[in-house]
Structure to design on (388 residues):
């Protein structure tokens, strides 16, 4: 009797083991991407805040002035740069608010809900960040090089500090864009492979 | 005996029915999104080709000229517009090449492979299309309104046709961007819900 009782017990243990071991592997892989997602999100927040702050504080007044006019350049002068500051601030806020969902994805790596939510909103804010970064980049390029055909002169000879600061902001915003692309691709892979 | 034989037979039929009916519904839903994906892709191709062609043919020569100089504006004058034509052409080529994968997704709505492939590349080309659209939009805005602080004059008073054509190209490119966002979101939903 004792042997017959032992046999079903051990088979039960084996079954439990296989149940516990089998889903643990893909779960671990998914948990890894979720943790990576959280870390990348922190980096994107830092880059987005740096971009918005660097552009928002760009302001240079030249030391000489005429009777009627003092030469000053700030991000306020350009509609594109205003859009840049606003949209990078919105993107940074979204990324901060998305951190709880990223944590939920770490705790429950198999639930597709939070990842789906994140991938859809990430795509939308990727587009917002890309559009503001590209628009600002084209203005910064114009400020550096000017355009002969339309007689738009390069202003970076005069406003060197202003140009350096706005260029830095554009670089930071493109880092945000690259990180957001990585986030979307990683979420897609984590959702797609079961 | 005859009744005991009948019972398992009918229960088998019921089981088969439930097996056949249950996966048919999500399959039909997924097939619908795959067909929608194909149709939206055709629309995005048309919009991207329209944007590239409209920008690429924008060229206006003013009827008056000085001794040394004839006033002419074409997309060649602006580095941003050159980037716009090239990247919209690349996006259109990608969308044409992605059609076979979209057809595979229609034939096999449950296979995650083609959809994963499409969502990752769609995200990359969404970023490319958005950056060129936004960069061109900021230059078009400048051409319309100018910028007082930097003494960049609005050129649309002189080059009216040129401005109208480039503005149209920017609108077409933003239609491409919106369709690509829809494609990414639809693919994500189709992959995520099982």
């Amino acid at each position: 009797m004792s042997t017959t009782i032992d046999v079903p017990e051990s088979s039960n243990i084996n079954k439990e083991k296989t149940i516990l071991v089998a889903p643990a592997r893909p779960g671990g892989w998914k948990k890894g991407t979720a943790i990576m997602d959280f870390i990348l999100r922190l980096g994107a927040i830092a880059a987005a805040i740096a971009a918005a702050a660097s552009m928002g504080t760009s302001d240079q007044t030249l030391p000489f002035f005429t009777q009627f006019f003092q030469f000053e350049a700030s991000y306020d002068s350009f509609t594109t740069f205003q859009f840049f500051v606003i949209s990078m601030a919105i993107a940074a806020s979204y990324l901060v608010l998305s951190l709880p969902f990223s944590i939920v994805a770490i705790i429950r790596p198999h639930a597709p809900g939070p990842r789906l939510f994140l991938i859809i909103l990430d795509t939308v804010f990727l587009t917002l960040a890309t559009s503001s970064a590209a628009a600002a980049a084209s203005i910064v390029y114009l400020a550096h090089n000017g355009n002969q055909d339309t007689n738009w002169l390069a202003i970076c000879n005069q406003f060197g500090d202003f140009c350096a600061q706005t260029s830095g902001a554009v670089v930071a915003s493109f880092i945000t864009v690259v990180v957001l692309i990585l986030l979307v691709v990683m979420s897609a892979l984590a959702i797609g492979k079961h």
Chain A has a mean pLDDT of 83. The two ends of chain A are 43 Å apart (CA to CA). The domain at 25-60+76-192 of chain A is CATH 1.20.120 (Four Helix Bundle (Hemerythrin (Met), subunit A)). Chain A is about 75% helix and 5% strand.
